[in-house]
Structure formats: structure tokens, C-alpha cells
Amino acid sequence: MILQTVTPISVAGTTVLFALFLSLTAHLAARNVLGDVDPRRALYVGPLPAVVGVVGGAFAVSEAVLVPAALLVDGVMFAWSYDQPRRLVIGMTVIHAVITTLLGIVVLGTAVLLASMPG
């Protein structure tokens, strides 16, 4: 059994990396729906859903509550950052969830494969 120590630095680092990942996938989703967009706007979308995820995970909040809350915050941040009609915001939020899930699976799968590589 490996004992892991949780420090404020590790929590902050995890939150920042997760926020950057969510910002990247938010930009991909916005670009998919709106076309050519300013990538800096996506930097406003990623941090709050990342905080919701990290804090919810830290307090062992049920996924049945955590996922809808994160999606709601994500949609609110898309609406605030891109100032688009509700239908486009819903589309961007759904595409963001799909892109984040797929890219997360690919990145995690690659990490697992590299970690299990012999030698």
C-alpha cells in the first residue's frame, strides 16, 4: 500500500492543471460551434468547473450531484465568456463534456500504457 500525502501545493497544482485542461477542451468546443474564436475566452471557462470537481472530490460529494453541478457551472461560464444565445451555450457545453471525456480517456489510457511499459 502506498501512502500519499496531500498538501496544499498538490491540491493547487491539480486544480490548475485540471483548469488548463478544461480551458483547452472549452476552446475546442467553442471553436467547433462558433468557428474562429479568441482562445483567451476559454481561459475563463475552465477554472470554476475545475474547482467544483476538485472540491467536490475532496468532500466526497456524490457524482449524481457533482456532475450536474459542474455542467451547470460550465454552461454559466460559457454564457458569460462567449455571450451567445442559450441554444449555442447548451451545444458548447455538451460538446465540451464529450471532448473532455474522450480526450481524458485517451490521455489517461496513454499514461497507463506508458506506466506499465517493461524496462
Automatic annotation (TrEMBL):
<feature type="transmembrane region" description="Helical">
    <location>
        <begin position="6"/>
        <end position="30"/>
    </location>
</feature>
<keyword id="KW-0812">Transmembrane</keyword>
<protein>
    <submittedName>
        <fullName>Uncharacterized protein</fullName>
    </submittedName>
</protein>
<dbReference type="Pfam" id="PF24285">
    <property type="entry name" value="DUF7473"/>
</dbReference>
<keyword id="KW-0472">Membrane</keyword>
<dbReference type="InterPro" id="IPR055896">
    <property type="entry name" value="DUF7473"/>
</dbReference>
<keyword id="KW-1133">Transmembrane helix</keyword>
<feature type="transmembrane region" description="Helical">
    <location>
        <begin position="94"/>
        <end position="117"/>
    </location>
</feature>
